[in-house]
Design a protein that fits this description.
Blueprint lengths: L2 H13 L5 H11 L4 H7 L5 E4 L6 E4 L4 E2 L2 E3 L6 E2 L10 H22 L3 E9 L2 E11 L5 E16 L2 E18 L3 E18 L3 H38 L5 H19 L1
Antiparallel strand pairs: 1-2, 3-4, 4-5, 6-7, 7-8, 8-9, 9-10
Helix pairs in contact: 4-5
C-alpha cells in the first residue's frame, strides 16, 4: 500500500460531502482494494444497524466488532455470518462488556429516548479497551437527521488506579427541504480526546469510570456542536438574509453616514 495513495484518499474524503462518506468510501475501496483495511479502520462513517438472529435485538456495526465480513453481536457474543476461530474477549472482559452494555442501554433510553446502542470490549496486554456506540435517527420525511457517537477508550491498570484514554467522535446529519424554502443540508463530524487517571477498586469501578467519561464528553461535544453548527449557521443566514427591503436598508445607511459626517464638522 502506498502512503501517498492513502493520504490522498483521506484528503479526498475530507473534501467530499460528509453525508455521502459511506458511499464515497465504498467507491474508493473499489478503485484501490489494497487500501480497504486501512481506510475502514481510519475513516469514521455513520453506523449501520443489524439484528441479532439469536436475541432479535438490534446492534451496531463498526470496525471493532468486525472480523473479515462477519460482525459480533454484543447480545449473544456470536458472529454473523458464523466464523470459526474468531478472536473473542476473555471471560473477565466479556462480563464487563455485558455490564457496560446494560448501563449504556439505560443511558440511551434516558438521553436519546430511542435509538440503538452497542458496547464492545477486547483485551490488551496491560488492561483492556472498548468502544461505546450510540445512534439515533429521525423517521424519513421532508426533514431528516441522524446522530452517531463513537467513543473508543483504553484502560491501563496501574495498581489502585487506571489510566483512561478516550477518543470520541460525533457524526451529525441534518437535512430539510420544501418548495418554499428549497433544500438545506448540514452535515459534519467532530473528534475530541481526553486522558485521565481514576481510582479503581474492582471491575465495577471501570464501568463507572468509563460511563462518567463518556457522559461528560457527550455533554461537552453536544454543547460545542450547538455553538459551532447552529450558532455559526444562524449568524451566516442572518447576515445573508435581510427582512428589510433593500431600498430601506440603503436609506438607513445613507442616514447613518450623514450623521457621522455631521459629527466630524
Amino acid at each position: 500500500m502506498s502512503s501517498d495513495q492513502f493520504d490522498s484518499a483521506l484528503d479526498l474524503l475530507r473534501r467530499l460531502p460528509p453525508h455521502s462518506t459511506a458511499a464515497n468510501l465504498n467507491r474508493i475501496c473499489a478503485l484501490a482494494p489494497d487500501l480497504t483495511e486501512e481506510l475502514l479502520s481510519s475513516v469514521d462513517q455513520p453506523l449501520q444497524t443489524r439484528q441479532c438472529k439469536k436475541t432479535k435485538r438490534d446492534y451496531l456495526l463498526c470496525d471493532y466488532n468486525r472480523d473479515g465480513d462477519s460482525y459480533r453481536s454484543p447480545w449473544s457474543n456470536e458472529f454473523y455470518p458464523e466464523l470459526e476461530d474468531a478472536e473473542m474477549p476473555s471471560e473477565r472482559v466479556r462480563k464487563m462488556e455485558v455490564r457496560m452494555g446494560e448501563a449504556v442501554d439505560v443511558y440511551r433510553e434516558l438521553y436519546y429516548e430511542g435509538g440503538v446502542s452497542s458496547v464492545y470490549f477486547w483485551d490488551l496486554d496491560d488492561g483492556f479497551a472498548g468502544v461505546v456506540l450510540l445512534k439515533k435517527t429521525t423517521p424519513k420525511s421532508s426533514s431528516e437527521g441522524g446522530w452517531d457517537s463513537i467513543h473508543v477508550f483504553e484502560a491501563i491498570d496501574r495498581a489502585r488506579n487506571a489510566h483512561y484514554k478516550l477518543t470520541s467522535t460525533v457524526i451529525l446529519r441534518l437535512s430539510t427541504g420544501n418548495e418554499a424554502l428549497g433544500d438545506m443540508d448540514l452535515s459534519g463530524n467532530m473528534t475530541r480526546q481526553v486522558e485521565q487517571d481514576m481510582p479503581v477498586q474492582d471491575d465495577g469501578s471501570h464501568i463507572v469510570n468509563v460511563g462518567k467519561l463518556v457522559e461528560d464528553m457527550e455533554l461537552k461535544m453536544r454543547n460545542l456542536l450547538q455553538e459551532v453548527y447552529f450558532g455559526k449557521a444562524k449568524d451566516i443566514v442572518g447576515d445573508l438574509r435581510s427582512l428589510q427591503p433593500l431600498t430601506e436598508a440603503n436609506k438607513d445607511k445613507a442616514t447613518h453616514q450623514e450623521m457621522i459626517n455631521s459629527m466630524k464638522r
